[in-house]
Amino acid sequence: MRAREACAVITMTATCLATNYALVWLPNIKLMDFLVFATGLLFGPIAGASVGALTWLIYGTINPYGFCLPILAATACSETIYGLAGGLLRRLSGLRWLEGEGLAWSAYKLGVLGFALTALYDLLTNLAFALVFGMPVLLALAYGAYFALTHEVSNAVLFAICTPALARAARLLAPWEGEIDA
Asked: Nearest Cα to 98, choosing from 163, 14, 7?
């Protein structure tokens, strides 16, 4: 990892932690997932996945809701999907996917992506919860349905609104603009 990516990982991890603690009063509505995705989009999948894992390793250890090692492992591993997805989107198409499309269409696709990634995250973490606490899987999914839906819808909105703005700003402001399209 180069110095630029290392600085991005440190800065974005700190930003994720700050926003998580600031929004602790809103269960399952966080900026962290979008920020992890954005790190992957701007700096690559390794940087994005690193931010996701590091954020959960710190936040999950010093968590206002309590600490449980198996749940920490599940959330830290599952959070990496956002960074990996952002990095994959970057590798497949850079930021060219914004060109030639209307903002509404880009926002729609990103909202669907945010919803789908969050549904996968919620499924994995709810399965881990069921296994750790010896609960039937369907019961765990049913108990977590409200929180999962809140998480998925809020992330869909965040991804739809924030990602096109971030990508356009990156194309205008980033000194490494050529690398983002590669």
From this structure: 163
The SS3 of residue 148 is: helix
CA end-to-end span of the chain: 18
* pLDDT tens string 88-125: 988 887 666 555 566 677 888 899 999 999 999 999 99
Backbone angles phi, psi at 99, to 5 degrees: -80, 140
Please state, in angstroms and as integers, the Cα–Cα distance from residue 109 to each residue in 98, 101, 181, following that order.
Answer: 11, 11, 19
Beta carbons of 9 and 47 less than 8 angstroms apart: yes
Query: Angle CA(168)–CA(173)–CA(175) in degrees, nearest 5?
Result: 125
Tokens representing 131 are: 């296994």
What SS3 state is found at 74? Answer: helix
Q: What percent of the chain is predicted at pLDDT more than 90?
A: 70
